[in-house]
From TrEMBL:
Organism encoding this protein: Anhinga rufa
Keywords: Coiled coil
Coiled-coil boundaries: 7-34, 59-114
The gene coding this protein: Ccdc62
Superkingdom of origin organism: Eukaryota
Name of this protein: CCD62 protein
């Protein structure tokens, strides 16, 4: 009966060990799935980090472009200021020349009055009038040249204003693109923080599962040792039962011999 009980206990222990083995297999499968998910998350984090680096490089390039555009804009502004100063100088010269022309006309009128009053020096005055007319022609040609220069400067000013407007439009577009890139960068940083928190949580879960697995392995080792002890005890019990059977056989043979001796003694 004890052997049967121990066999039943052994069978129960074996069934429990099989259940524990199945549970361990399930836990190992779950652990492998968690490791695969963690690896996928790590790959995603790496790809996001690479994309973030690419966006940072692109942002640096755009900043360099904006810096070069601002330098170009400053250079164009300085050129525009120079052209304004030259335009103001030409206007001032034109005023001086107009003042000279008015002075010359006044002088010519005075000479005509003097010609009427001084008929004797009419030849000298006519020569002076011819010289003044030549001077007037020179002044007119100079005025025409100055008008052409003024027109050229106005054309340059209009061209520079058009370029300045184009550069302002490009600067606005670059600023809007920079704002969108900064926004996307902030979103990526937030997503990266969330993924880092999820990774740390997964690491903590993995550590807990590993500790639980170690405890279960220790329990399995303890159960195996207990199973070995039970097997050794069972072997000892079987050996004791065999010895008892042998002793019983010896006692029976001894009883048979004593019975035969008693029967022989009774016969005697």
């Amino acid at each position: 009966s004890t052997v049967l009980k121990q066999r039943q206990e052994l069978q129960l222990l074996i069934a429990e060990l099989k259940e524990r083995d199945e549970e361990l297999n399930d836990m190992v499968a779950v652990h492998q799935r968690q490791l695969l998910a963690w690896e996928d998350d790590r790959q995603k984090i790496l790809t996001l980090a690479e994309r973030c680096n690419l966006l940072n490089n692109e942002l640096n390039k755009r900043n360099e472009i904006i810096k070069s555009l601002t330098k170009r804009l400053k250079f164009l502004e300085s050129q525009q200021n120079d052209s304004k100063t030259t335009y103001e100088d030409t206007q001032q010269k034109f005023k001086e020349l107009s003042q000279k022309v008015t002075d010359a006309t006044v002088h010519c009128q005075a000479l005509e009055e003097k010609n009427q009053s001084l008929h004797c020096s009419v030849l000298e005055l006519s020569a002076k009038a011819g010289q003044l007319q030549a001077r007037e022609q020179e002044l007119l040609t100079m005025l025409k040249l100055k008008d052409e220069v003024i027109l050229e400067t106005t054309d340059h000013i209009t061209e520079f204003t058009c370029k300045f407007k184009k550069l302002e439009g490009a600067l606005r577009a670059a600023k809007t693109e920079e704002f969108s890139l900064n926004k996307e960068k902030q979103d990526l940083k937030l997503r990266l923080k969330e993924l880092i928190l999820e990774t740390n949580k997964l690491k903590d879960d993995i550590c807990e599962k590993v500790e639980e697995n170690n405890k279960q392995q220790e329990e399995i080792i303890y159960l195996k040792q207990e199973n070995g002890c039970l097997r050794s005890e069972l072997a000892l019990i079987v050996e004791k039962a065999k010895r008892k059977d042998q002793l019983l056989q010896f006692a029976k043979s001894k009883q048979a011999r004593t019975d035969t001796e008693l029967s022989s003694l009774r016969q005697v």
